[in-house]
């Protein structure tokens, strides 16, 4: 997480947050380094006051949710990056961190895990989708999928209450506005332009923030090749399955359902 005098950045995994973090650090005159990482680990956060834009704090809870934002910062505007569920599955699959040993405790709780996924962790993409949704989504067949639940956990003021609400309640615009903080969502595929426009709205000058439009990709490890477009991973049936499970998230962001 990042806290500034003007806004907060909440970094949902695999949504372009490494790019946003580097961009904001540069804006505030900071550079990511081994020593900065060590300071964040030892102190829990790194704060700098020397920028003309004010105070900047990088919190070591990299993927903290809105509910973990300290009270003094909770009424500030929240900047967030979001990505569609179809691409989220592909990004997670190719990044591969789900294969790590510490993730197995989540998957071992899936009913009949060893019988259903005997080749784990060597899974084809459809198998991964089935496993991830079984582990992270609602266990009821008609419940909410993994990415809808993650979105609610990351951004709603009271995630437990929101998760208990029926879809019909969260479809109501007034109910949803009351349940969310003042959050500004930027799509991953337009992250440069989105972050730049957000900063201008926050009062930053174009000459200070304009470098963001020229930044290259910032990848936390292995990135996907240009030919690994998410559409190539899906059969019509698999796409329909994801659409059904992530229906609420796709209603929040209709442009994700392309």
CATH topology: Rossmann fold
Count of domains: 1
Question: How many individual β-strands?
Answer: 6
Helical segment tally?
14
What's the overall geometry?
globular
Q: Kindly estimate the percentage of residues that lie in beta strands according to DSSP.
A: 5-15%
Q: Class by helix and strand content?
A: alpha/beta
Give the mean pLDDT. 93
Low-confidence stretches: none
Keywords:
globular, Rossmann fold, alpha/beta, 258 residues, 43% helix
Structure write-up:
This protein has 258 residues and is an alpha/beta fold. It has one domain: Rossmann fold (3-Layer(aba) Sandwich). Helices cover 43% and strands 10% of the residues. The protein has helices spanning 17-27, 34-43, 85-95, 104-108, 113-116, 125-136, 146-155, 159-164, 167-171, 173-179, 191-201, 206-209, 236-245, 247-252; strands spanning 2-4, 7-10, 45-48, 56-59, 77-82, 183-187. It has a six-stranded mixed beta sheet with strand order 3-4-1-2-5-6. Strand 3 and strand 4 form a beta hairpin. It is globular. The model has no long low-confidence stretch (mean pLDDT 93).
Could you give a short description of this structure?
By secondary structure, the protein is of the alpha/beta class. 43% of the residues lie in helices and 10% in strands.
Annotate the secondary structure layout.
Elements: E1 2-4, E2 7-10, H1 17-27, H2 34-43, E3 45-48, E4 56-59, E5 77-82, H3 85-95, H4 104-108, H5 113-116, H6 125-136, H7 146-155, H8 159-164, H9 167-171, H10 173-179, E6 183-187, H11 191-201, H12 206-209, H13 236-245, H14 247-252
Parallel strand pairs: 2-5, 5-6
Antiparallel strand pairs: 1-2, 1-4, 3-4
